[in-house]
Amino acid sequence: MAGQKHDLDDKDMDTPSLSPFVPMFEVFRNELDEHHDRRERIIKASRDITALSKKIIFSLQRVRQLQSHISPPIAKEIQTRYGTIKDLFVSVAPDLQGLNAWRYQREISGGCQEYVEAISFQDYLETQRLITHQEAQELIPGGVELTANDYVLGLFDLTGEMMRFGITSMATHGVLPRGTGNDGNESKDILADLRSLRTSFESLDTSSSTMDWSPFKRDIEKKVEIMKQSVEKVEKAAYGIIIRGRERPKGWVPDLSEGQDRGREPVESY
Predict the structure, then answer these.
(1) 125 CB contacts (<8 Å, ≥6 apart)?
(2) Read out DSSP for 15-61?
(3) What b/e string do you get for 124-140 counting C-beta neighbours within 10 Å, with b at 16 or more?
(4) What does DSSP assign to residue 268?
(5) How far apart are CA 163 and CA 174, in angstroms?
């Protein structure tokens, strides 16, 4: 027996669904839309913070003396960028409150690390000391939390900027950059500070089983090798100046390519 075909008229199609699940899934849809919009805002702000922080670091590399005030032209330049960075942090602060601070931590992490690198580099140039986690947190407005992981990873990147500062100063003046000792402490050179940082970083214990899945452990393992390379470059340049410095013409720039193992990852640059 042949089945009968039923045509759907417009009246049947316009009848609203009586399913109780439709309103529930509409709520889910709205929540997902809000999540993706929030995530995109944070990612964009983080990228802008990263770019501005790199420009600040580039400006600070024009400084030539440890434990000295930043020259007015450079200070004016970096303060403008700091102001923009703070506005960016404030703009995403409402999206990073409560549980969302951890939900979107990876999205804001890159910007926080680069910002820590910039402020710690400036603090080191002015005071020849390491900025603390609390001091760095106070420089981030809007209640955006600076995690201990981002703070430590930012300090790892600081060693690369210290290396560049040291190499440039040695090429320009023929000596390792050294503090003035105006703070009452014994004057130290940048190589001593880099070696102290290397010792501290190498003592970090990441062997805990609870960290096996953590991105922090993978980042640490990568940055440790890059940090060691940075310290070795300054050591090699310093040895070259001390042992054979008198044979070198004025303006000589250390050749850092000699003796380097092939296959090493390059130090992160601009």
Answers:
(1) 60, 63, 66, 67, 68, 70, 165
(2) SPP--THHHHHHHHHHHHHHHHHHHHHHHHHHHHHHHHHHHHHHHHT
(3) bbeebeebeeeebeebb
(4) P
(5) 15
- Phi–psi pair at 178, nearest 5 degrees: -135, 145
CA distances from 38 to 34, 91, 197 (A): 6, 11, 37
Give this prediction's pTM. Answer: 0.80
Average pLDDT, the chain: 84
Do residues 133 and 119 touch, judged by C-beta distance below 8 A? no
Contact in structure between 155 and 226 (CB atoms under 8 Å): no
Give first-to-last CA distance, the chain, whole Å.
78
| 218 token code pair | 């993978």
CB within 8 Å of 156: residues ≥ 6 apart:
201, 220, 223, 224, 226, 227
- Asked whether 137 and 150 are in contact (CB, 8 A), the reply is no
- What is the per-residue pLDDT for 187? 80
When pLDDT is averaged across residues 46-64 and rounded to a whole number, the result is 96
Res 59 pLDDT > 90: yes
**What per-residue confidence (pLDDT) applies to 175?**
85
DSSP letters for 190-209:
HHHHHHHHHHHHHT-----G
What's the CA gap between 99 and 145, in Å, rounded? 12
Grouping H, G, I as helix, E, B as strand and the rest as coil, residue 189 is: strand
Quote helix, strand, coil % in the chain, to nearest 5: 65, 0, 35
131 residue type, one letter? I
**Residue 94, token pair as written in the block:** 């409402």
pLDDT tens sequence across 67-118: 988 999 999 999 999 999 999 999 999 999 999 999 999 999 999 999 999 9
